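pinging the channel bc i need a second pair of eyes. not urgent but kinda urgent?? the chain im working w is below, pasted from the shared doc
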Amino acid sequence: MTTRLKRLALAPLLFSTLLVPTHAGAQDGEIAFPPIGSGRWEGVVLASGYLSSDGVRRDGSFNTSVTDVIDDTEITLDFVVGDNGQVTSGRMRVDLTWFVESVGTAPVTFEPYRVVSDHHQTGSLAISGNAKELVAAGTLTHQSNTVSDGVFVEEVSGTRIGEIKWGFQVLEANCVLVTGAPVWAAGASVMNEARHPPGTSEDPPYTYSNRLAVHLMAWPADDDVFEDPEGIKEALEQITLAADGIRLREYPEAIHLLELVQAWNALKAELAGLEECQATVLGWVPQSEESWLVDLLQQGLIKALDNPDDYKASDFIDFWVVGLSEGALDNALSVRFLNAFYNKLDEAIADGDTDSIYDILSFAAAYNFSVLYSQAMAAFQGASE
């Protein structure tokens, strides 16, 4: 127990010693690839998560729909950047799969229904533009299969060719690594929903929850850019693996979030030694208050908070520490965490779980949550008598 209390008290100090990203000021706030970024680039678009909507109509009938991006989705890209920062050529290879399920009751008749469909888009898109608007455009083959109440619906199933355009914007750079996000989309695809901010919103009579996560990562493809290309590439691979550890797990653990933070800082340590990274980088300015790293960490935190029964109070403390260390705890998440701790305290009291009560007491003391501390202290003293 004492170890837990010391760990909580020291956590903010320990995490403050981690490397933090450095950004050089840009001329006139222009978004651009770093000057060392001309030449060949390669990268990935990481896509995962779900989108849901729930609603009750005036007559009492209802509909619930969930859209999931399937784990075997793979999107890769390579492109060439000219000296002026414009993409001269490039391709994005797409293998994107998502699954939609809707259940509910029909208006008036209240007949129950269940509609399930799977979608698979494949093909190659041409890349153009620049860091402010990196555009992937072309045609993709779209295969879909729809089943309604167990009956295959031929009219809305089959294979078709569709025009697709996706617009991405570079949001951050760490010397020779850039990350971005979708800002607009055209054509039939789940990417249309991914450009909306994550979170839950209400538009009566429906409630929408967007947990789709789409991130673009790109880095120079020429080995001669790096003094130690293998070290850089290994660090990039570790970041991708760690990101997958959060995106693809239904129930991530705090260690998976910490692995991403450690991989990110390992890459920054590699980049810090590059000669190119010591020079002043003009033409770059970070554009987003919410970084790629923060967004992915929040996805992991949300997954845990959505499934509180699968975690102990100590697990939530570990999640809190990692999230706090990287600035991933916004107001909404902080409130959800506090609610989770209050619920875990009630459970611990009911179960006579002294260890969990002490964990919560230690957490409340370390972060000065006085009401939670008082309740946990009263419960701990009562359990100790």
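so Residues 3-227 form one domain. and Residues 331-351 form the longest helix (21 residues). — does that match what u expected or am i reading it wrong
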